[in-house]
């Protein structure tokens, strides 16, 4: 039953020492560190602690924001630890998943996070509907136009392979097939 500490600073100018000192006072057996923005997924220290943590171990952080990029990411990580019977403790927020109160706090965070995801989804759908009503459509502009269709059809008529046509027109084979099917369906 090891106590594993994790410390992270966002930039090289920041200092890990204060977090490491606090984790040392908490009697962490090992301390893993990263110097990386919370938004980056390349965090070798975090990956190592998640790999090394065994059933019965506890991961300790000075603050929740040091462990997860977002609330959703944080909760996902903690749920994965719980499934492996690894405890989690955040000192600043006084959260300890080994206690009933800590579990309740995390469940509240999860409920609030789910509520926020639902609100974001609602706002996104409302925005898309509004854009659609205004005549805008999402996505990338289509590469297909009548001039490109005509060139492709001439090449097909000249018995050039679909692969060569796609390469020459700088489109994928899937786009070429879609374009040819669309042209075959539409009346001339």
Automatic annotation (TrEMBL):
<dbReference type="Pfam" id="PF00239">
    <property type="entry name" value="Resolvase"/>
</dbReference>
<dbReference type="Pfam" id="PF02796">
    <property type="entry name" value="HTH_7"/>
</dbReference>
<dbReference type="GO" id="GO:0000150">
    <property type="term" value="F:DNA strand exchange activity"/>
</dbReference>
<dbReference type="InterPro" id="IPR036162">
    <property type="entry name" value="Resolvase-like_N_sf"/>
</dbReference>
<dbReference type="InterPro" id="IPR006118">
    <property type="entry name" value="Recombinase_CS"/>
</dbReference>
<keyword id="KW-0238">DNA-binding</keyword>
<keyword id="KW-0229">DNA integration</keyword>
<keyword id="KW-0230">DNA invertase</keyword>
<dbReference type="InterPro" id="IPR006119">
    <property type="entry name" value="Resolv_N"/>
</dbReference>
<dbReference type="GO" id="GO:0015074">
    <property type="term" value="P:DNA integration"/>
</dbReference>
<dbReference type="GO" id="GO:0003677">
    <property type="term" value="F:DNA binding"/>
</dbReference>
<feature type="active site" description="O-(5'-phospho-DNA)-serine intermediate">
    <location>
        <position position="10"/>
    </location>
</feature>
<dbReference type="InterPro" id="IPR050639">
    <property type="entry name" value="SSR_resolvase"/>
</dbReference>
<feature type="domain" description="Resolvase/invertase-type recombinase catalytic">
    <location>
        <begin position="2"/>
        <end position="135"/>
    </location>
</feature>
<dbReference type="InterPro" id="IPR009057">
    <property type="entry name" value="Homeodomain-like_sf"/>
</dbReference>
<dbReference type="InterPro" id="IPR006120">
    <property type="entry name" value="Resolvase_HTH_dom"/>
</dbReference>
<comment type="similarity">
    <text>Belongs to the site-specific recombinase resolvase family.</text>
</comment>
<keyword id="KW-0233">DNA recombination</keyword>
<protein>
    <submittedName>
        <fullName>DNA invertase Pin-like site-specific DNA recombinase</fullName>
    </submittedName>
</protein>
């Amino acid at each position: 039953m090891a106590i594993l500490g994790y410390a992270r600073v966002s930039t090289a100018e920041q200092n890990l020492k204060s977090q490491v000192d606090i984790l040392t006072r908490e009697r962490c057996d090992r301390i893993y560190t990263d110097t990386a923005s919370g938004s980056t997924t390349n965090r070798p220290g975090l990956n190592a602690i998640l790999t090394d943590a065994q059933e019965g171990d506890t991961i300790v952080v000075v603050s929740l924001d040091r462990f997860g990029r977002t609330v959703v990411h944080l909760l996902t990580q903690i749920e994965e630890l719980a499934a492996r019977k690894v405890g989690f403790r955040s000192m600043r927020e006084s959260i300890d998943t080994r206690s009933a109160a800590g579990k309740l706090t995390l469940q509240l965070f999860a409920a609030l996070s789910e509520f926020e995801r639902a609100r974001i989804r609602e706002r996104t759908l409302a925005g898309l509907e509004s854009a659609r009503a205004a005549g805008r459509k999402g996505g990338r502009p289509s590469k297909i136009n009548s001039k490109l269709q005509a060139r492709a059809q001439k090449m097909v008529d000249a018995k050039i392979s679909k692969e060569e046509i796609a390469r020459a027109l700088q489109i994928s084979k899937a786009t070429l097939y879609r374009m040819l099917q669309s042209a075959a369906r539409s009346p001339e």
